[in-house]
Amino acid sequence: MEQKPIGIIGAMASEVAALLAAMKEEKAEELAGLVFHSGALEGVPCVVVECGPGKVNAAVCAQTMLLRYSPRLVINVGVAGGVGSQVHIGDLVVAAACVQYDFDTTAMGDPLGTLFIRRGAESEDILLLPCCEEAAAVLLEEARSIYGGAHFGVICTGDAFVADPEKGRFLDETFQAQAVEMEGAAIAQACYMNGVPCAVLRAISDGANDGSPVDFPAFTRMAAEKTSRLLRAAVGRL
Ligand code: ADE
Q1: From the candidates 2, 15, 25, 225, which is the catalytic residue?
Q2: pTM of this prediction?
Q3: Do the Cβ atoms of 228 and 77 come closer than 8 Å?
């Protein structure tokens, strides 16, 4: 039987460009306006797609991918703002879990980021969306051998580009976050609802602070190339 593919989702063209260039493409198919590129990356069947920025783009993309291609693992790659004093531009962050920090029913007494997920007749409350431990371990191991290491922790997702050190501090204090971006937890939620493992791999393009409007365009290419190189090295073991 043909092996199920690994799904790879990046928000921006720059986040998937090096992977698409390295992939032996067999087919491109447009669904919901998104172009899904199927083929082999380092000999491993993969589907690669650019979803566009933000949680809704990411969730629509992930759900479409899950239904159409039945990936055995979905990986979200790209850049992120660094959170906390230990995370610097150029560093890699592998998610242990993801949080939608802007999902807010605190007025009703719920902790910030708590989601309500249908389970048939039941509803489940969940704050930390889990990521695949085995995939994270492989990514961390490859990061160690190529770049000397990566951070492993919570990645925060919301529909905002964060360029405010106060917000970064808040995400650090509230969620012990290491990075902030705009898609990871939406993809993790879609995967969780479908029972498919997911991983989120990000490289830091900026500090989610006053410097971000300048740093993000300056460092995105370097950061995206780091995640692409790492993923190419790891994909055979995922
Ligand atoms: N992606 C890269 N940098 C980011 C930031 N500062 N905020 C949100 N998403 C990002």
Answers
A1: 15
A2: 0.98
A3: yes
